[in-house]
């Protein structure tokens, strides 16, 4: 079992634990804001399950039906997570509106805050682990899950502040008001998760920083070639696809051209983790004078 899959399973367990703790805090207090916080944790559990399934699918090797692999499965998971976040936010807005019309005094607010605070600490630690490990493993599903959890930590802190103000001022309308603010923040988070994931599904190119590294490697390592042009990149989950045309002198043998390609591929894989490289070799008359200049 890979480390990424183990982390995904742990997310399900921790998400369920945090959900139980937050539901206890809501049950003790009857707070609309704490209900909103708990409802977001319901989304966490569901999306952790979706991330686990997506990672398992993405790890499958290429086959006849999917010759480029199953890497994009993780993007589908992240899109699903974003949509579920938005749905949860709309449900919270509905509860906040009802609470705003008929505000009520909370039961055991301090006890509820302490219990909810314990859940927030657990989420903060796990969010940091998910983001750091997800980036190291180049897993969009884990990074998206971690970012959402971090948003949950921030909103939980806001909820606690709002409830404390309600306790000290007696303005119990602050409870549903905080729930409404949480919902707006969750909506924004869900929108960003969907936006980033759709860019991956649409075969968005790698970052400019990565692209500059790729061009530099080709320029330095393709000695014996003339130029490289029509460079294209895209990322899909843990894989980064790179393809380009490599122009070689007309007298270059197939063996020598292949040696150049092997050298470039090895160098690219050293700087771009998970690189999947395709090089189309062309004779010198195909030179475009507008691509990557190869250094001698």
From TrEMBL:
UniProt-annotated location(s): Cell membrane
GO cellular component: plasma membrane
One GO process term, biological-process aspect: intracellular zinc ion homeostasis
Pfam families per the UniProt record, alphabetical: Cation_efflux, ZT_dimer
Residue ranges occupied by any Cation efflux protein cytoplasmic domain in the UniProt entry: 207-284
Membrane-spanning residues: 7-28, 34-55, 75-93, 113-132, 153-173
Keyword Transferase: no
Matching InterPro entries: Cation_efflux, Cation_efflux_CTD, Cation_efflux_CTD_sf, Cation_efflux_TM, Cation_efflux_TMD_sf, CDF_Transporter
Protein name: Protein p34
């Amino acid at each position: 079992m890979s480390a990424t899959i183990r982390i995904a399973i742990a997310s399900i367990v921790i998400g369920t634990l945090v959900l139980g703790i937050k539901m206890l805090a809501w049950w003790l207090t009857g707070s609309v804001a704490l209900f909103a916080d708990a409802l977001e944790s319901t989304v966490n559990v569901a999306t952790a399950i979706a991330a686990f399934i997506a990672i398992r699918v993405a790890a499958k090797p290429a086959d006849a039906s999917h010759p480029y692999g199953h890497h994009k499965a993780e993007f589908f998971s992240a899109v699903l997570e974003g949509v579920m976040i938005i749905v949860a936010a709309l449900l919270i807005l509905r509860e906040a509106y009802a609470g705003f019309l008929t505000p009520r005094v909370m039961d055991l607010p301090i006890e509820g805050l302490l219990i909810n605070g314990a859940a927030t600490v657990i989420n903060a630690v796990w969010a940091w682990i998910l983001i750091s490990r997800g980036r190291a493993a180049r897993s969009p599903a884990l990074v998206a899950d971690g970012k959402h959890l971090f948003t949950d930590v921030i909103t939980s802190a806001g909820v606690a502040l709002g409830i404390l103000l309600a306790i000290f001022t007696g303005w119990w309308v602050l409870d549903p008001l905080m729930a409404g603010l949480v919902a707006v923040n969750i909506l924004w988070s869900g929108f960003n998760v969907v936006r980033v994931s759709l860019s991956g599904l649409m075969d968005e190119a790698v970052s400019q920083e990565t692209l500059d590294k790729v061009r530099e490697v080709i320029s330095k390592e393709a000695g014996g070639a003339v130029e490289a042009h029509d460079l294209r990149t895209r990322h899909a989950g843990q894989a980064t696809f790179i393809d380009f045309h490599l122009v070689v002198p007309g007298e270059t043998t197939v063996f020598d051209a292949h040696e150049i390609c092997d050298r470039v591929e090895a160098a690219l894989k050293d700087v771009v983790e998970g690189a999947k490289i395709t090089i189309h070799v062309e004779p010198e008359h195909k030179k475009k004078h507008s691509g990557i200049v190869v250094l001698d």
